[in-house]
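May I ask for a sample protein chain and its fold as tokens?
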Amino acid sequence: ISQARQAVGTLKTLFASTESLIRSPMALPPPEGHIELNGIAVRNPEGSAYLLRSVSLKLVPGDILGLVGPSGAGKSTLAKIIAGALSPDGGDIRIDGASFLDWDPEELARHVGYLPQDSALFAGTIGENISRFAAHRDAPQDEIERGVIHAATQAGVHQMILHLPGGYNARIGEGGRGLSGGQAQRIALARALYGDPKVLILDEPSSALDAEGEQALQKAMNTAKARGAAIMIVAHRSSILCNVDRLAVLVQGMIEHQGPQAEVRDALEAARAHANVVSMKPR
């Protein structure tokens, strides 16, 4: 009897502590896209080191933020955090002042467009992939089709898709099998643009693109910016970053510089010049 009472007490404590997870979040109005990260921290899977440490950052509607830094700095991890694909181990992330935890994940995902580094297409038709398989959520078919063509046109892939055998009904394998790397990346961009999301996170979106694809990407970003989307792009190619409004530099999981593009570039040039002077001094 004593053990049973103790077990009941433990269960009551557990249920009380997880009540907020069980309760359905209250429906919030569609966001404008103001994203604020405060003190974000992420540990590696083993828990032995930090991938991100005390990262604070803002995304602003109608503004493009470029995220740069060396390989292994944590840029893709940060992109996943903002896209809602990964939960931080510490810190707070908010959209229009509301915590991401206050949103129903499925509802929040409608307002976020995310293009991961590996495209991450799924087995199915091209149209299903662009629509994020909206038919499985009982969305009206005519609405889905209009949204798919609109997103593909914005991404500059409508004509390319029409020339594929089967067009939008062409079936692809897991990971975009059956498409070239550039085709998969451009279709994944259309998926990110589906539904005109208020937040757009692009992780190395030009890595597999040719010159035509890169131009289409620039045009898509400018269109999204003009309609008031908050955009973050992770990139190494300087040509993709030429039109960004602000830059953030991530080094070893921490933000070293952030601000208007010209100011950050000047700060980086000054740091390089200082490093060169120091390295040239006789020892």
